[in-house]
Specification:
The structure holds two protein chains of two kinds. Chain A has no helices and eleven strands. Chain A has strands spanning 4-7, 10-13, 19-25, 31-37, 43-51, 54-57, 64-66, 76-78, 87-94, 104-105, 109-113. In chain A, strands 2, 4, 5, 6, 9, 10 and 11 form a seven-stranded mixed β-sheet that branches. In chain A, strands 1-3-8-7 form a four-stranded antiparallel β-sheet, with no helix packed on it. The termini of chain B are far apart. In chain B, the strands form two sheets. In chain B, strands 2, 4, 5, 9, 10 and 11 form a six-stranded mixed β-sheet that branches. Chain B has a five-stranded antiparallel β-sheet with strand order 1-3-8-7-6, with no helix packed on it. Chain B contains no helices and eleven strands. The chains are: A mainly beta, B mainly beta. Chain A binds chain B through residues 31, 33, 35, 40-45, 48, 50, 56, 58, 90, 92, 94, 96-97, 99-108, and chain B through 31-32, 34, 36, 42-44, 46, 49, 51-52, 89, 91, 93, 99-108.
Chain lengths: 114, 115
């Protein structure tokens, strides 16, 4: 059982470049989330999805885009990368409405924009 | 808007001590609360989940309590060990409106257990 898988683990981007962070889960969870974690700042929600075809903004969505064409996949797109997007990105999934089941996290993608 | 606060931000204790980490949240309409552990440069490992209807959960040397009405949770670690050194994060799963659920995190407590 792979859980939540993120790729790549590390990436260096130049200012203005674009990239897609991939996230896949195999638990058939309806809810998926993208967070960024900056040192000492905890995790901030970028975007989330309550099911295939449905996405919504979180606390810090500017500079990012997402799509959810399948239950399994929730890619995060960075357009025109900026140094402020240097961070560690985590993808997570949960059943959402089942309060007895925990959320699962991927291992993170460490992104540096130079 | 849900806000989650963790106190203290950092804690250093000698090995063998019992300790308590605190988490508070502003909106008591939560579905569950989860405690995570994060080692430096690593992902999040789930430690305990407490449902909104529960008062506490135990796993080994860890005990988490929840007082939903006052918006508080505590994580109790018994007989601390150097291997417990990590950052501990609290997260609440709450209804953000229109049937959507968000998982909101505190900033964490960095624990150091000194041998």
């Amino acid at each position: 059982n792979a859980g939540v898988t993120q790729t790549p683990k590390f990436r260096i981007l130049k200012i203005g470049q674009s990239m897609t962070l991939q996230c896949t889960q195999d638990m058939n969870h309806n809810y998926m989330y993208w967070y960024r974690q900056d040192p000492g700042m905890g995790l901030k929600l970028i975007y989330y999805s309550v099911g295939a075809g449905i996405t919504d903004k979180g606390e810090v969505p500017n500079g990012y885009n997402v799509s959810r064409s399948t239950t399994e996949d929730f890619p995060l797109r960075l357009e025109l990368a900026a140094p402020s997007q240097t961070s560690v990105y985590f993808c997570a999934s949960s059943p959402g409405t089942d309060r007895t089941v925990e959320a699962f996290f991927g291992q993170g993608t460490r992104l540096t924009v130079v | 808007k849900q806000e989650v606060t963790q106190i203290p931000a950092a804690l250093s204790v000698p090995e063998g001590e019992n300790l308590v980490l605190n988490c508070s949240f502003t909106d008591s309409a939560i579905y569950n609360l989860q405690w995570f552990r994060q080692d430096p440069g690593k992902g999040l490992t789930s430690l305990l989940l407490i449902q909104s209807s529960q008062r506490e959960q135990t796993s080994g040397r860890l005990n988490a309590s929840l007082d939903k009405s006052s918006g508080r949770s505590t994580l109790y670690i018994a007989a601390s060990q150097p291997g417990d050194s990590a950052t501990y994060l609290c997260a609440v799963n709450w209804n953000s409106g229109a049937g959507s659920y968000q998982l909101t995190f505190g900033k964490g407590t960095k624990l150091s257990v000194i041998p």
